[in-house]
Amino acid sequence: AKAVGRGTHCLFETQMDETARERTVMERELREALVHGRFELHYQPLVDLDDNRIKGVEALVRWRHPERGLVSPTVFIPLAEETGLIVPLGDWVLNQACRDAAALPDDISVAVNVSALQLRNRNFAQGVLMALAASGLKATRLELEITESVLLDDTESNLETLHTLRRLGVRISMDDFGTGYSSISYLRRFPFDKIKIDRSFVRDSAGRSDAGAIIRAIVGLGASLGITTLVEGIETEEQLATVRAEGAQEMQGYLFSPPRPVQDIARMIADAAAK
Ligand code: C2E
Ligand code: CA
Ligand code: CA
Ligand code: CA
């Protein structure tokens, strides 16, 4: 029994080593990818539920890996956050998204995801200003999406940075609303422009009457605070009907369009405008 125990221990250690090695490899590859420009942005439409028009797009980063193909951000963003690489990567995303958006029609905004480590950086607001200046994009066309976890740490200076950006005209959205412990209390601490209701609330909605009730309650909360509500992850006509019935203003999801390269999104927007 002892031998088996020790064997198991060794196997466990080997797996730990393997995981650590994979992380080290991925960290090195991420650094190389930054240097060699192997990231790309895809854009997913944010759609007005009144008239089905595209109001804006969310920039979502992908990694063009030489062997693994297009790698999802869910695979590398956590490691980029742990290693601090999210700071230069996030800066690239911000600049590229502003450049891409500047080439889209004036009434289309662009939403960029911001990680905690980026916001905590003293120079973050300055970096946003530089991205706007370099691209010629108006501040009012930029939205920054932050999750509750971004506000959890170092809250006072984070709030100050957000206020600074908001005074300049940049809009701030609360992402993944409802997945954290204190989403609602953050609405009192910062005047968000938009709430993005997490897709877990619609995913559970098939055949369940309480999902509609929860969305309705959040939409009502947003309305009373003057905050726009968007529902994420709409995949079916049934879900679309639910969020429309509950009074949300915007939606995002595969039903309308998955994230696509900027040329495809530009064509979608042009086609819609020509109708
Ligand atoms: P998120 O900010 O909540 O972005 C929405 C995610 O939901 C995207 O996944 C999008 O492709 C996916 N999605 C959209 N519609 C649907 C739908 O109808 N059904 C389903 N099942 N999924 C849908 P993606 O592109 O894989 O991004 C995953 C996460 O990675 C993002 O979640 C965000 O947290 C992070 N991320 C992506 N790009 C960036 C970035 O530039 N910076 C930072 N810090 N994080 C990023
Ligand atoms: Ca987001
Ligand atoms: Ca989200
Ligand atoms: Ca999410």
Question: How would you sum up this structure, described in words?
Answer:
It is a single chain. The protein has helices at residues 2-36, 73-83, 86-102, 116-120, 124-135, 148-152, 155-167, 183-189, 200-203, 209-225, 237-245, 262-274, and strands at 39-48, 54-65, 69-71, 109-113, 142-146, 171-177, 194-197, 228-231, 250-251, 260-261. α1 packs across α2 (73-83). It has an 8-stranded mixed β-barrel, surrounded by 4 helices. The chain contains 12 helices and 10 strands. Helix content is 54%, strand content 20%. It is globular, with a radius of gyration of 21 Å. The model has no long low-confidence stretch (mean pLDDT 91). It has 275 residues and is of the alpha/beta class. The relative contact order is 0.11. It binds ligand C2E and calcium ion (3 copies). One calcium ion (CA) is lined by residues 175-176, 196, 232.
What is the count of DSSP helices, taking H or I runs of 4+ residues? 12
What would you call the structural class?
alpha/beta
Beta-strand portion reads: 15-25%
Low-confidence stretches: none
Shape estimate: globular
Number-wise, the strands total: 10
Separation of the first and last Cα atoms: 74 Å
Q: How helical, in percent, are the residues?
A: 40-55%
Order the strands across the largest sheet as they lie in space: 1-2-4-5-6-7-8-9
The arrangement of helices and strands along the chain is: HEEEHHEHHEHHEHEHHEHEEH
The overall pLDDT, averaged over residues, is 91
Please tell me how large the radius of gyration is: 21 Å
Which ligands occur here? ligand C2E, calcium ion
The biggest beta sheet, please?
Answer: 8 strands, mixed, barrel
